[in-house]
From TrEMBL:
InterPro entries the UniProt entry points to: C-CAP_CF_C-like, CAP/MinC_C, CARP_motif, TBCC, TBCC_N, TBCC_N_sf, Tubulin-bd_cofactor_C_dom
A single MF term (Gene Ontology): tubulin binding
Polar residues composition-biased segments: 163-174
Protein name: Tubulin-folding cofactor C-like
Domain C-CAP/cofactor C-like: 167-326
Length: 358
């Protein structure tokens, strides 16, 4: 009907000479045509973005996701056949870790249109795959090179993931000693205390970057990375430019994070503040006393970095947190929105006079 109206009005405007209309009536007539044209274009745009289109996108994602998962399952099953060749086995497990990271990136890149259930289900699958890989690492690769740490008085200390720093040092700091996430051996800052840590990614492509076993440090990451892993941090302040994939945070306490990413997952966080810009809903698990506010970071060139990462628009998802351990319909008591009067002001990390620069 609207298409017919548009055609009729257009035809009538062509039939009526301009000079025969009163100027006010002519202006009103033209305004009506413009409004109908705008409505027509909007309706056409909605057709192209219809639920059927969204369902098709979800179906395409699930097909790719399941294909990748089956491939990883096959790789995991083949691992035990390589136990006689430690070199090939280690390379094989590294390939599996890379495949899982790519699967995680796939979820992050498509999470903006996926239903919440599909995002949660996909992340649970990825978590299970990581746990399976971690179990294989423990079962198939010997840990003898760490035996010198396991003194008779320290048998209850399970730390074996980081080659530097002693178990007694970690215990005295009060940092958690065990992680449910597989932390990659990527570039990063590890085992630091009371230091300013600076990394500038601008000018080259940074893949994964890891922050692990940091106590009372300030971390400044300028530029864009593909993924960030934060593991066993206490009383730290982490300021980071946009991340094109995902951010995983595990076992942190008393920290402040200022982060922008397509996907952010937080596990075992206690008394931490998160200033976020994120395309999908942030996810917390086994966390309490965490507070959320909007992203507030500045440095020279950050707007261009946010634009290239697809994070230039504020989605307000920082306030739409999913608590995977809270299944009731009422608000989870484990997180809150940080009141405006308690938020930090905009942080500028453009200039760094000193610090540990990676």
């Amino acid at each position: 009907m609207e298409d017919e109206t548009m055609a009729d009005l257009s035809n009538s405007s062509e039939r009526i000479p301009t000079g025969t209309l009163d100027p006010a009536l002519q202006k009103k007539h033209q305004s009506m045509l413009e409004r109908l044209s705008e409505r027509h274009q909007t309706r056409l745009a909605r057709k192209s973005d219809s639920p059927d289109s969204s369902l098709e996108s979800t179906s395409s994602f699930l097909s790719r996701f399941n294909d990748c998962k089956r491939s990883i399952d096959t790789q995991l099953a083949e691992s035990s056949e390589l136990i006689a060749d430690p070199s090939r086995l280690k390379s094989h497990l590294v390939d599996i870790s890379s495949s899982i990271s790519n699967l995680e990136k796939l979820v992050a890149e498509n999470s903006y249109f996926l239903p919440s259930y599909e995002v949660r289900s996909s992340l649970k699958t990825i978590s299970d795959l990581k746990q399976a890989l971690e179990n294989l690492n423990s079962e198939l690769i010997p840990r003898k090179k760490f035996a010198f740490r396991n003194k008779a008085t320290k048998k209850d200390n399970p730390i074996v993931t980081e080659p530097s720093g002693t178990p007694s040092e970690k215990s005295s700091s009060g940092l958690p000693e065990k992680s449910s996430f597989l932390i990659p051996e990527s570039p990063g800052f590890r085992n630091k205390e009371n230091e300013l840590l600076v990394k500038n990614f601008k000018g080259f492509e940074m893949g994964e970057f890891t922050l692990s076993d940091l106590d009372s440090c300030e971390v400044r990451l300028i530029g864009s990375a593909r993924a960030i892993f934060a593991h066993r941090l206490r009383n730290c302040r982490v300021y980071a430019g946009p991340v094109t994939g995902s951010i995983l945070i595990d076992n942190v306490e008393g920290c402040v994070f200022v982060l922008a990413s397509h996907q952010i997952r937080i596990h075992e966080a206690k008394a931490c503040d998160f200033y976020l810009r994120v395309r999908s809903r942030p996810i917390i698990e086994d966390s309490n006393g965490v507070r959320f506010a909007p992203y507030c970071l500045r440095y020279q060139g950050i707007e261009e970095d946010l634009e290239e990462a697809g994070l230039h628009e504020e989605t307000a998802n920082w306030a739409n947190v999913d608590d995977f351990r809270w299944l009731r319909a009422v608000q989870s008591p484990n997180w809150t929105v940080l009141e405006e009067g308690q938020r930090i002001e905009s942080v500028d990390i453009s200039y760094t006079d000193s610090g540990n620069v990676a």
